[in-house]
Specification:
about 400 residues, alpha/beta, Aspartate Aminotransferase, domain 2, Aspartate Aminotransferase, domain 1, 2 domains, seven-stranded mixed beta sheet, four-stranded antiparallel beta sheet, 11 strands, about 15% strand, pyridoxal phosphate, PyrdxlP-dep_Trfase
């Protein structure tokens, strides 16, 4: 077990955090616990665990839905990486988001949420939160501290992504978090793009940092899991809501996410290197109107990214010049390495067409050409570039 009295770098924490071989007969990896039931030796112990749960401490293991030693190990290491108080594992990224939002919102409250957000979260806001009496306002991601002008007396939560889904605008997270904190408003941020290694929202004033561990933390496209890292004040509301709503991670998914996390420092660096190479290459292509990747020096959000972030992931976007649907299909239908799939963060490269205009209301999307979302995997970068080059040749041939 790592000494709590020593300060370690993130790479070291990723390897040693959440591990206690002495507690498991010297086993290096925390074992996977398949458990619904925990046995109590006495009525006194059973009552004590009930008190623990009722108080919101959740230190003791009582029932599988609320976690096992494997769950606690994953929560602990991600908490250390993010500089949080404690974390809550949920069944998927959306589950962690929904649990966090509903922990702080009630009928009559107001949610201020970034306009360019993950589509299923917008669907949840429109289909569920509004139906249950929560007022929802979408705001332009470029507002920064000016978002305070949209605060209302009943505003309870500001929800962020940075960079934004599909369009990759950078958001001034510290400025927004500071403005929200001054009004007693909770800030929640989806930090999946950056992973715990490239950005730590809680260190910039955010109350809850969420990861779809399905993606970079897992790294292998074979599980569904979400994690919400909380401040001390936010932990009990999120934990109680997640537990009370039935959100929990499956034991094998938790174990595989914990195993995947051990190599994340190496993987995320390679993802960034490859993404940067491809993004710069795309900027030279006549078919491309612009590339959306904040790690590029000429990206509009580069200054914020450089100020706040420690690195970038492998996910970025590109806007093409106007082409027909048939041309786009000719390019994407026959890719060799870049496959089409609705996820990212795994070892494989992915590419999908996107339609940002259908997911905007505060600030219209006006680009005339089609857009692409690209995930740079761990393949040879030259092979990936050649795959794209062949795709552009097919596009031009239609």
């Amino acid at each position: 077990m790592m000494s709590p009295h020593k300060k370690y770098g993130t790479d070291t924490i990723a390897v040693h955090g959440g591990r206690d071989p002495d507690a498991f007969h010297g086993v290096v990896n925390t074992p996977v616990y398949h458990a619904s039931t925990f046995i109590f030796k006495s009525v006194e112990q059973l009552i004590e665990t009930r008190r623990d749960r009722a108080s919101g401490a959740f230190e003791q293991f009582t029932y599988g839905r609320e976690g096992t030693p494997t769950t606690r190990a994953l929560e602990d290491v991600v908490t250390q990486l993010e500089g949080g108080y404690r974390a809550v594992v949920a069944s998927c990224g959306l589950g962690a988001i929904v649990a966090s939002l509903t922990a702080f919102l009630s009928a009559g409250d107001h949610l201020l949420i970034i306009d360019s957000l993950y589509g299923p979260v917008r669907d949840f806001c429109e289909s569920f939160l509004k139906r249950f009496g929560v007022e929802v306002t979408y705001f332009d991601p470029s507002l920064g501290a000016d978002v305070a002008h949209l605060f209302q007396a009943n505003t309870k939560v500001v929800y962020l992504e940075s960079p934004c889904s599909l369009t990759f605008e950078m958001v001034d997270v510290p400025a927004i978090a500071k403005a929200a904190k001054a009004r007693g408003i909770t800030t929640i941020m989806d930090n999946t793009w950056a992973s715990p290694f490239c950005f730590q929202p809680l260190k910039h004033g955010v109350d809850v940092s969420i990861h779809a561990a399905t993606k970079y933390i897992s790294g292998h496209s074979d599980l569904m899991l979400g994690i919400a890292v909380c401040t001390e004040e936010a932990f009990i509301p999120v934990k109680k809501t997640a537990s009370g709503s039935g959100y929990c991670g499956g034991p094998d998914d938790v174990y595989m996410a914990l195993r995947g996390l051990r190599t994340l420092p190496l993987r995320i660096k390679r993802h960034q290197e490859t993404a940067t190479l491809i993004a710069k290459w795309l900027q030279t292509r006549p078919e491309v109107a612009r590339v959306m990747y904040p790690a590029l020096p000429d990206d509009p959000g580069h200054a914020i990214w450089k100020r706040d972030f420690n690195g970038a992931s492998g996910l970025f976007g590109a806007v093409l010049k106007p082409f027909s649907d048939q041309q786009l299909a000719a390019m994407l239908d026959n890719m060799d390495l870049f496959q089409m799939g609705y996820s990212w963060g795994g070892y494989e490269s992915l590419i999908v067409p996107t339609w940002p205009a259908t997911l905007r209301s505060a600030k219209p999307w006006t680009e005339p050409g089609p857009a692409l979302r690209i995930h740079a995997g761990l393949e040879d970068p030259d092979d990936l570039i050649r795959d794209l080059e062949r795709g552009f040749a097919r596009l031009a041939g239609v």
